[in-house]
Specification:
Elements lengths: L2 E14 L2 E14 L3 E5 L6 H8 L7 E6 L2 E2 L5 H11 E5 L10 H12 L3 H14 L15 H13 L5 E5 L7 H16 L4 E4 L3 H4 L4 E6 L2 E7 L1
Parallel strand pairs: 3-8, 3-9, 6-7, 7-8
Antiparallel strand pairs: 1-2, 1-4, 4-5, 9-10
Helix pairs in contact: 3-4, 3-5, 4-5, 5-6
Length: about 230
């Protein structure tokens, strides 16, 4: 089986003055290509710390993390930034779009860092916007789009580089229930196309869209269920 994510005995200890806090206490799990995984747990359970490690935004204190077969543990900051841009797509609760930039240019951003030509960026970004149902909105600025449409732009930006994994952190946290349903159906459709999605959420009805749910408590995984 092709595992795009593989964590082995991951520990993360934060030192605050003379105090030490162990946020992750030997977490191990793998995610196969094409899975849709929801990571759940109360505040302080370790799920956000784990997500930051998955996103190469933080390093584990010990343990091994393989991303698409690459051991990211020994990489320097520049290598991690390149891996993030090449292998990962990010979707955040707050959309994180550039306010004064039209949708098309927001989606093109990862391609700028990846060194694509202007023409290639344009073609790929238009295709990604079409994939999320926003064809014709490429010149709209975020202020001209609804919350749901802004999140679709963010999802298009996450998709545009054809990443190994999309990491979604509370992607429906700022949306009403009807829009939440639309966005989760979009994620479900993308997953059916073979895209691997790992999503952090504290909402059980949102997690229910995923085919696998991993629950954290006090730095441990206490449940890992697949339906």
């Amino acid at each position: 089986m092709n595992h795009v994510i593989s964590l082995t005995d991951i520990r993360r200890v934060f030192t605050m003055g003379e105090q030490q806090f162990e946020a992750l206490k030997g977490v191990s799990y793998s995610v196969a290509a094409g899975e849709f995984v929801a990571i759940m747990g109360a505040s302080g359970s370790g799920k956000s710390t784990c997500m930051n490690i998955l996103g190469c935004l933080d390093r584990p204190t010990s343990g091994q993390y393989l991303l698409d077969g690459l051991d990211v543990g020994g990489m320097d900051g520049n290598q991690l930034a390149e891996i993030r841009n090449r292998k990962l797509g990010f979707v955040f609760q707050g959309f994180n779009l550039l306010a004064r930039t039209p949708a098309l240019e927001n989606v093109e951003l990862p391609l700028v860092y990846a060194g694509f030509s202007s023409k290639e960026r344009n073609i790929k970004a238009l295709a990604a916007l079409e994939q999320v149902g926003l064809a014709g909105k490429e010149n709209n600025h975020p202020s001209q789009l609804s919350g749901g449409q802004q999140q679709r732009v963010a999802i298009a930006r996450a998709l545009v580089n054809a990443p190994a994994v999309i990491l979604a952190d509370e992607p429906t946290g700022n949306l009403d229930s009807a829009t939440t349903e639309e966005i989760m159906e979009l994620f479900t459709n993308l997953n059916r196309q073979g895209i691997t999605i790992i999503m952090v959420t504290h909402e059980h009805d949102v997690a229910a869209y995923a085919s696998r749910q991993i629950t954290f408590r006090d730095g441990h995984i206490i449940a890992d269920t697949t339906r």
